[in-house]
């Protein structure tokens, strides 16, 4: 079962439609995972990231394939817990310890509530507020970075991936989803254009697209697939494969 993003609809006092950038602003602030974003996040990510539902569904399938008994499964940058719950759904009868980690207190508080509502008490899931680059990882079989690494400063990315690789048990995997950049300028611009067309088809205006892009500038730093591939191998992964891509959004699997 794929976790539903409609859980938020149970709370009538919580706005669900993303209109954060619908009004013109003289100063567009840098993107932050604050209360305003938390309140619209399921709508925002579904309408902004093509293929998001497919990625979440496949995180469940990949967890079913690679999770190992009595290991940890980490969702790093868990936001509202969609990937966390996908891992839980993929475990079946395997007894694993699921840990979701995010450094946004607003995200963590909401995620804790949603996970508690949707998880039987006998299943071990913890949602923790922390910076992922300072976590002491326990032996793990599945680690997810679902559109999270791109928000970490580039100079900190290798060290985090090295620590993940060291924590993975033999046969363990990292599932890494990212917005991509492309070395060929023509292809790069084409993928941006197609992504913007996708967002228009989801009801976003040109103003919303422009202001959101401005808010993410210097906050979300995308890299090319070859850059990710090289860094992952440098960090200690034996192989890296691209298993999903739609425009400039992709998901990779890296093997211990």
From TrEMBL:
Residues that bind S-adenosyl-L-methionine: 52, 77-79, 102-103, 131-132, 146, 213
InterPro entries for the chain: CmoA, Methyltransf_25, SAM-dependent_MTases_sf
A Pfam family: Methyltransf_25
Methyltransferase domain boundaries: 75-172
First-tier enzyme category under EC: transferase
Region annotated Disordered, chain positions: 1-20
Keyword DNA-binding found: no
Annotated GO biological process: tRNA wobble uridine modification
Single GO term (MF): carboxyl- or carbamoyltransferase activity
Keyword Glycoprotein: no
Catalytic reactions of this protein: prephenate + S-adenosyl-L-methionine = carboxy-S-adenosyl-L-methionine + 3-phenylpyruvate + H2O
The EC number(s) this enzyme carries: 2.1.3.-
Subunit relationships: Homodimer.
Family note: Belongs to the class I-like SAM-binding methyltransferase superfamily. Cx-SAM synthase family.
Function: Catalyzes the conversion of S-adenosyl-L-methionine (SAM) to carboxy-S-adenosyl-L-methionine (Cx-SAM).
Name of this protein: Carboxy-S-adenosyl-L-methionine synthase
């Amino acid at each position: 079962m794929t976790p539903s993003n409609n859980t938020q609809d149970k709370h009538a006092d919580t706005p669900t439609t993303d209109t954060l950038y619908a009004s013109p602003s003289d100063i567009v602030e840098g993107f932050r995972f604050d209360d305003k974003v938390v309140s619209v996040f399921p709508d925002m990510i579904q309408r902004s990231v093509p293929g998001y539902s497919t990625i979440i569904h496949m995180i469940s399938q990949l967890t079913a394939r690679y999770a190992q008994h009595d290991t940890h499964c980490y969702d790093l940058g868990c936001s509202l817990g969609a990937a966390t719950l996908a891992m839980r759904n993929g475990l079946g009868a395997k007894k694993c310890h699921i840990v979701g980690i995010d450094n946004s207190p607003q995200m963590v508080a909401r995620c804790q509530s949603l996970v508690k509502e949707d998880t039987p008490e006998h299943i071990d899931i913890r949602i923790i507020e922390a910076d992922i680059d300072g976590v002491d990882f326990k032996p793990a079989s599945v680690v997810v970075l679902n559109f999270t690494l791109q928000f970490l400063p580039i100079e900190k990315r290798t060290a985090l991936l090295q620590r993940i690789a060291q924590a993975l048990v033999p046969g363990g995997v990292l599932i890494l989803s990212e917005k991509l950049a492309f070395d060929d300028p023509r292809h790069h611009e084409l993928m941006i254009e197609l992504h913007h067309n996708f967002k228009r088809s989801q009801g976003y205006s040109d103003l919303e697209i422009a202001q959101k892009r401005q808010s993410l500038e210097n906050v979300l730093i995308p890299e090319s697939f070859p850059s990710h591939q090289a860094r992952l191998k440098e960090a200690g992964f034996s192989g890296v494969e691209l298993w999903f891509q739609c425009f400039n959004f992709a998901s990779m699997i890296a093997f211990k």
